[in-house]
Amino acid sequence: MPSVIAYLGPQGTFTEAALLRLPGADEAERRPMRSVPEAMDEVRSGACDAALVPIENSIEGSVPVTLDSLVRDSPLVITAEVVLPVSFVLAGRADGAVATIASHPHALAQCREFLRSKHSGASTVDALSTAAAAELVAGGRADACVCARLAAERHGLDILADDIGDNPGAVTRFGLVSRPVAAVAPSGNDVTSLAVYIAHDEVGALLRVLTELEVRGVNLTRIESRPTGERLGRYAFFLDCTGHIADARMGEALMGLRRVCAEVRYLGSYPRDTGEAPIPAPPGLSDGDFDDASQWLERLRANGS
Ligand SMILES: O=C(O)C(=O)Cc1ccccc1
């Protein structure tokens, strides 16, 4: 476990709750940062060994600042993931009016229906995190906030409504990022994350990417595009692939992508935390099958039989 870990703070965020689920994190120095890019830059500068940041949630989708920092700034790799169920409270002062409600945009989005039906007159204020929103309320700069119960309690706020998320089963996925390192050994249920840039002026470029994965039996669990920031129409595609970079079929697929893509950024191989069972290799695509095929080719090249 890295010894100094930055995370999206302040104390009381869902990211902190996720961090505490990582084995060994209680012994690490945990450094709360104001924003996701600042947490990731602490790692790039060497001030911290790793950072835990939100990547996506099951309702609102990806966290754009995290994805943008992963592809636009100097390379980092994900070494672990944590999938955390999230439950929100509305916190403030029991005796006060609620004209402004602060929170992280993803928290506001996940409570949209509750806010619309119960506080349609209030305006929402984006904060850098749910716990930062609780600080705003404690400091009198917003009337209420959407946050974790723990953050409300820490700031002595009243719980105005409990469990206000529109989808009771909502989960958020967090990634532990570090400067590039070799992946830990396969766990048997791993994911490999990539960002690929395709040649935009070639017909079928994205199909070629998918084909490289499909012919090696590599399963895709997520594909998502983000603008590269160069100009309209330029996108990076984020791929989560079932398997580990040490698996033969993943290695072959990566080599294929390297040949057909304008650029491939490797974002790490790490154990899955979704609770989903591993997907077995399709027939003919196990490590043993690749090994057998490459030994056969070597024999043909060496002896012709
Ligand atoms: O703001 C927080 O507490 C975070 O950790 C980011 C976040 C926001 C909303 C849902 C899950 C995580």
UniProtKB/TrEMBL annotation:
InterPro entries in the record: ACT-like_dom_sf, ACT_dom, Chor_mutase/pphenate_deHydtase, Preph_deHydtase, Preph_deHydtase_CS
Lyase found in the keyword field: yes
Pathway this chain belongs to: Amino-acid biosynthesis; L-phenylalanine biosynthesis; phenylpyruvate from prephenate: step 1/1
Catalytic activity: prephenate + H(+) = 3-phenylpyruvate + CO2 + H2O
Keywords carried by this UniProt record: Amino-acid biosynthesis, Aromatic amino acid biosynthesis, Lyase, Phenylalanine biosynthesis
Residue ranges constituting the Prephenate dehydratase domain according to the UniProt record: 4-179
UniProt-listed Enzyme Commission number(s): 4.2.1.51
Region (Disordered), start-end ranges: 272-291
Pfam families from the UniProt entry: ACT (PF01842), PDT (PF00800)
Domain ACT: 194-271
Transmembrane segments: none
Swiss-Prot/TrEMBL site (Essential for prephenate dehydratase activity) positions: 172
GO cellular component terms, A-Z: cytoplasm
Single GO MF descriptor: prephenate dehydratase activity
Class in the EC hierarchy, top level: lyase
Protein name as it appears in the record: Prephenate dehydratase
Organism for this UniProt entry: Stackebrandtia nassauensis (strain DSM 44728 / CIP 108903 / NRRL B-16338 / NBRC 102104 / LLR-40K-21)
Gene: pheA
